Amino acid sequence: MSNANPLMPQMATILDIIAETPEIKTLRVSGKDGLPFDFMPGQCAMLSVLPVGEAIFSITSSPTCRDCLEFSIKKTGKVSNSLHSLEPGQQIGIRGPYGNGFPVEEMKGKDLLFIGGGIGLAPLRSLIGYCFANRDHYGQIDIVYGARSPADMIRKSEVKETWAGQPNTKVHLTVDAEFPDWKGHVGFVPTYVTELAFTPENKVAITCGPPIMIKFVLQALDKLGFAPEQVITTLEMRMKCGVGKCGRCNLGPVYVCKDGPVFSLAELNELPGEY
Ligand SMILES: Cc1cc2nc3c(=O)[nH]c(=O)nc-3n(C[C@H](O)[C@H](O)[C@H](O)COP(=O)(O)OP(=O)(O)OC[C@H]3O[C@@H](n4cnc5c(N)ncnc54)[C@H](O)[C@@H]3O)c2cc1C
Ligand code: FES
């Protein structure tokens, strides 16, 4: 494994592609000698397709998985469209890892509440896999995951079977509206969090999803009595260099690519502007 120069793309081979939803595919990629680099949950990598360009994506596999890196990629533009058009065996460029990752040491001994929406499950999945691999370090785990429809949920069998079957773990799924094939909860994620009435004692809440979901989840957690220090989120800003050089992603003095993308709500409350 080489962690030589995070600015220098390496070539990686696509081992497998999983079609998650009509808009999202998970790519499993490997470097020449296994994992291209070591990383921690919450970190990201720049993926490139020649001559199209490059874009940043969360590493969704757990660092405890040593076979490959996984990325769940939503079709939104140039690079993600071309990543969707690739086949197993083809090569892409990869550089990283970038960002700070989740505070896994500070979270030890706490109960964990994961709150994800849509593709926002991608960075949470890396952390959830890490916590299951180090199960004794963490208390009760609750996972709230929502999507627009059952068809928009990613990693369905892993979430419903593998995660729900872990010790001391509860999975709470919801979709935005009624669907004929859906027998579970119906309603938006923030409302469901309120209904589930989580208590804040000895708990850390980690949330990722569309900005509108995060905004209302933060309000719901506040009403449930969570302090800003107990709430962690991961931001998606426009990025270019990924290493704090181009100034594309700053919030006041903070570069989301380098100082984030993971922040506690207490840290975000200190920053200027919209995020
Ligand atoms: C830390 C981090 C982690 C991320 N993790 C993931 C992940 O795990 N999975 C995932 O699918 N995505 C993830 N993203 C988002 C992803 O990086 C972006 O969607 C990226 O823009 C995709 O590149 P693209 O070339 O496919 O799309 P682009 O061509 O960049 O277009 C993306 C969207 O932005 C719009 N757009 C393009 N240029 C501009 C502009 N100048 N101003 C305003 N809007 C513009 C386009 O119309 C389109 O709607 C992450 C982003 C960050 C910052
Ligand atoms: S992306 Fe260049 S400074 Fe953050």
Plain-language structure description:
It is a single chain. The protein has helices spanning 78-84, 121-133, 156-163, 189-196, 211-223, 256-259, 265-269, and strands at residues 10-19, 24-30, 44-49, 53-58, 69-74, 91-98, 111-117, 141-147, 169-175, 185-186, 203-208, 231-234, 250-251, 254-255, 262-264. It is α/β, with parallel strands linked by helices and 275 residues long. It folds into two domains: 10-98, Beta Barrel (Elongation Factor Tu (Ef-tu), domain 3); 111-234, Nucleotide-binding domain of ferredoxin-NADP reductase (FNR) module (Rossmann fold). A seven-stranded mixed sheet has the order 10-9-8-7-11-12-15, sandwiched between helices. Strands 4-3-6-1-2-5 form a six-stranded antiparallel sheet. It starts with 9 loop residues before the first strand and ends in a 6-residue tail after the last helix. The mean pLDDT is 93. FE2/S2 (inorganic) cluster (FES) is lined by residues 239-242, 244-249, 255, 257. FE2/S2 (inorganic) cluster binds at residues 239-242, 244-249, 255, 257.
The whole-number mean of residue pLDDT values reads: 93
> End-to-end distance, in Å?
35 Å
Order of strands across the widest beta sheet?
A: 10-9-8-7-11-12-15
CATH class of the largest domain: Alpha Beta
* CATH topology group of the largest domain: Rossmann fold
Under CATH, the homologous superfamily of the largest domain reads Nucleotide-binding domain of ferredoxin-NADP reductase (FNR) module
The SSE order reads EEEEEHEEHEHEEHEHEEEHEH
